[in-house]
Amino acid sequence: MNMTNVVQALLVLCEEAFAGPSDPRGTWFTSNEQDSGFLGTVKYISAAEASRYVGAGGSTIAGHTNHLRFALNLANRACRGENAHAGADWKESWHMSQFLS
Fold this sequence. Notes:
5% of the residues are buried. The protein has two domains: 44 residues, no CATH class; 45 residues, no CATH class. The protein is an all-alpha fold and 101 residues long. Helices cover 45% and strands 0% of the residues.
């Protein structure tokens, strides 16, 4: 397996996931519309909308965003050779309470 190709493919996938596809004529998994990645999707959502629970026992858009931040932080820690799961609280990562005080 050519690691250069693997890394390049992962970078393209990450770019599409966060920014949207670089070439709208072809995508891996998002719409081919401008701003169809994560950042474009949340760009126009108000704080009130992001804080609204979607149902009983559900999370919020803000909670999902915090969970994504949490997961990326774990990945960064693992890439640095750290024990990524030491002190990680999966359940708490779905909540935004630590940012509200």
